[in-house]
Amino acid sequence: MLKGAFPIDSFKGRKTPFYFYDMDLLQRTLEEIKLQAGRFPGFRVHYAVKANSNPEILRVIAEAGLGADCVSGGEVAAAYAAGFPPDTIVFAGVGKTDEDILLGLRLGISRFNVESEAELEVIDSLAKEAGKVAPVSIRVNPDIGAHTHANITTGLAENKFGIFHEELENVLRKVLRMEHVSFCGLHFHIGSQILDMADFVALCNRVNEITAKLKRCSLPVGDINVGGGLGINYQHPNHLDIADFKSYFETFARHLELEQGQTVHFEPGRSVVAPCGTLISRVLYVKKGVTRQFAILDAGMTELIRPALYNAYHRVENLSSSEEEELYDVVGPICESSDVFGKGLSIDRCHRGDFIAIRSVGAYGECMASRYNLRPLAESVFYRK
Ligand SMILES: *Cc1c(COP(=O)(O)O)cnc(C)c1O
After folding, report:
1. What is d(CA 128, CA 126) in angstroms, rounded to the nearest whole number?
2. Among the atoms of ligand 1, which is closest to the Cα of residue 194?
3. Are residues 244 and 95 in the same domain?
4. Which residues lie across from 117 on neighbouring strands?
5. What's the pTM value of the predicted model, to 2 decimals?
6. Range of the structural domain that residue 325 is part of
7. What residue ranges line ligand 1, CB within 6 angstroms?
8. Is 349 exposed, middle or buried (0-12, 13-18, 19+ CB in 10 A)?
9. Beta-bridge partners for 153
């Protein structure tokens, strides 16, 4: 959304900060995903609920016909409540509790993406007690590093996620002997905010190696879940407002060696919802330092923790001013020195009360909010033209 397109008059009576969701953009994004994935018959898309679990956002995504990828019992329950059919819900996570597993069994979810042998044994025994057979995929740690921030890389060997690929055959033989789990496929996820398609090509190559090896040992492969991770353009939210789903799905179609009828599952989170969300806040104070000046906002790391946590960049715009740009350290009100949205950002001259837009916060924004400093949780506004 261009700066001038924000319905700023409707902001005037509102308490700031709040999350502003451009629901038209979300709708266009979902249509693009369906169009691009739909070109390849076996491709299935499950939205990664952890990126944004706001009930209205979930409802719209469920209505568009995507499945859900969950990483906790709470997310499984939220996805189910929002209307995702259980047979489109997949459930990963290294620390599933007994309660989480029982919920999944009761609802009849499509898949438990199992991350350790210990978890597998617990699922088998809980399924036995419940008189059920749990559908499982094995999450494989492919030992591939995506070129992204160390904290959001999940596919390296020294990492808590998944089963190391060299141990896969033994674990798979064990799964096949269990009576209350049925083996359905392999699951991978290499990280987040991946923009270089070469990282996904590397994943495809590793998947091909692993499946070829399993076949040589006469072991089943099942379906393939390649996880999420497609990145968005945080620098230019106005020009590139939908992620490159075309290249993304084409990359997997071109590089994965599939069997007839084998399905491929995708779990995009950020790329679905990040661009449609904006954090709207007001300037509380402009403070002049010796060599720099600060724009102190009423939003902080409690509403958007990504800059503090990952040193992430979000574009900041002053919606109320079109005066000459100046350099500001844009900061929040929280008592932490990491509560900074950006240092030396060039934005239109700020005054007390100006509306400031922090862009591309639809993913890992609202869902990571906290009440630190006893701040109230910010509201959300769903905008349709
Ligand atoms: C976080 C996560 C995703 C979504 O990642 P994005 O980078 O938001 O696309 C998908 N699958 C799993 C297993 C995850 O943990």
Report:
1. 5
2. 7
3. yes
4. none
5. 0.96
6. 3-18+275-383
7. 48, 50-51, 69, 71, 92, 189, 192, 227-230, 267-271, 363
8. middle
9. 191
